[in-house]
Write a structure and sequence with these properties.
single chain; alpha/beta; 8-stranded mixed β-sheet; 8 strands
Amino acid sequence: MKTFGLALGGGGVRGLAHALVLEALDEIGCRPAIIAGTSIGAIMGAIYASGVPGRTIRESIQKNIISRRDTWHDIFNKRSDLLKVVRTVAFERGPGGTFKPDRFLNFLLAAVNKRTFEELDIPLRVIAADYWSGEEVVLEAGALLPALKASIAIPGVFAPVTIGNRELLDGGIVNLVPYEHILDRCDVSIAVNVAGTRTPGKNRIPNVWESVLRSFQLMQEATLSEKMKRRRPDIWVHPEIINVPMLAFGKAGRVLCQSAPAVKEMKNKIEKILARS
């Protein structure tokens, strides 16, 4: 029986697409032997590796998405829940004008009762970047929460996280989709890139914040492109997520809808591999 490894890339709110990937793997009985994650991919990977099913993760996201079928009562409750999420970030200032992600992460990881890597049901490798050396740092042992805080420490948004003698930043700076970190533990590698694309709107000139995040993404994609020339994963999943900014959490519904076709294609590829094994 072939073993599968899963790499979940960074991309802010676009990483909610990982929930569909995880649910699809559960549906066909394909349990990863190893997971590697960057930024939001590390968070989604940690939730799943702790034993939370993909369907539960997806449903917890969808319950906060406002649809046309919702009553005013539904909308009020959903907006109240979304405000709680926003407040966990907006009212905790960190050094240098950045935000502290502690309460935000605690909210996201509420269903996780594991505190260390060693307690997880599936081995997990979390990717971060060393602020001073620029080196990639792979975290896979010890306390889980500090590692996740480091992996999502987007420059200018969250403050760097100190682990040992290192100051760590968002793993996407050095490795957007860390599939090379699963190759030694599986027969078939699955890599999910949720970088997304943007098209010009009515206001073609971006503001300062949009420029910073878009520049960040362009550098990530250039590095990833070079890595892909050397070695590709066995299954490459790249949903067409269009015009969803990194931190636009109000567009979670669009992310799930746009990601569904790519996840279906991934599912078909895995089923063919399983049928041959």
